[in-house]
Amino acid sequence: MKKIFGFLFVVLLFIATTAFAQKADLKFGHVNSTELLELMPEREAATKQLQDYSQMLQKEMEAMQTEYQTKVTAYLEKQATFSDLVKKSKEAEIQEMQRRVQEFQQTAQQDYQQKQAELIQPIMDKAQAAIEKVGKDNGFTYIFDLSAGGLVYHSAQSIDILPLVKKELGIVTQ
Predict the structure, then answer these.
(1) Read out DSSP for 97-152?
(2) Structure pTM?
(3) 28-169 adopts what CATH topology?
């Protein structure tokens, strides 16, 4: 019986020592990926392209709405003079135009989101690759993203890797 307790004690001591040794080898880091993305020069160009694309879609939408409003106003002003057949034709034309405006609105929103993903995803991929490289090169076990909002605490032992990632990406700031 004493041998069994002695053996269990040695095993538990070994497990505790191994766990402590492994814990001592852990290296934690953190980065604010939102801040990193804002510092990347490619983001500014992508943002400009998105703004230009948005303005182009907005102008087209405004032109369609103006045309629609013009048709509605003209119809309302002259509807008393139209025959039933002309009224029905004009109403159908206005309804069709309203449908096209709504369809354009939905398609424009989807196109904008697709364009945004197309422009932003390569920047995010580049940032992720740099974070992974810094993590591997510097022996980090975990790197937490502070901008994700899931991390509520990090100790002073957790290293902010933003300067290392900026260096990896060649980002120079004052």
Answers:
(1) HHHHHHHHHHHHHHHHHHHHHHHHHHHHHHHHHHHHHHHHHTT-SEEEEGGGS---
(2) 0.66
(3) Protein Binding, DinI Protein; Chain A (3.30.910)
